[in-house]
Automatic annotation (TrEMBL):
It comes from the Archaea. The lineage of its organism: Archaea, Thermoproteota, Thermoprotei, Desulfurococcales, Desulfurococcaceae. This is Large ribosomal subunit protein eL18. One of its GO terms (cellular component) is cytosolic large ribosomal subunit. Keywords: Ribonucleoprotein, Ribosomal protein. The keyword Ribosomal protein applies. HAMAP family: Ribosomal_eL18. Pfam families: Ribosomal_L18. Belongs to the eukaryotic ribosomal protein eL18 family. Transmembrane segments: none annotated. The keyword Ribosomal protein applies. Residues 8-118 form the Large ribosomal subunit protein uL15/eL18 domain.
Length: 120
């Protein structure tokens, strides 16, 4: 069978932009995230809030190449970038004082990808 990649138009645009930024700024992080997003949906990452809480400290910037789920609690402010979030995940991140943003927004804010952790 021929590989087709994601059929979601927004996701395809995100992957294209991340690859472009990776080439332009010579950063490997956005290329790695784009490659993770190209995988089939059933292989894409799903990360709970509790894991983000465990592996970060206050003020960290985190990228999840997939979906952020709302299981668990978070007790410090973190900026989380992902393709999608559950409603409870967004609520818990914002209650803790953090931000939930799309991956492309983070890539445009920080094209060099400095001080960004990939979790998942």
């Amino acid at each position: 069978m021929k590989k087709t990649g994601p059929t979601n138009i927004v996701l395809r645009k995100t992957i294209r932009e991340l690859k472009k930024l990776s080439k332009q700024y010579k950063t490997a992080i956005w290329k790695a995230v784009a490659e993770e997003l190209e995988k089939p949906r059933r292989q894409r990452r799903a990360v709970n809030i509790s894991r983000i809480n465990r592996h970060t400290s206050s003020g960290d910037v985190v990228v999840v190449p997939g979906k952020v789920l709302g299981s668990g609690n978070i007790d410090h402010p973190v900026t989380v970038a992902a393709v999608s979030f559950t409603k409870t995940a967004i609520e818990k991140i914002e209650i803790a004082g953090g931000k939930a943003i799309h991956i492309l927004d983070l890539a445009r804010e920080n094209p060099r990808g400095s001080n960004v952790k990939i979790i998942g």
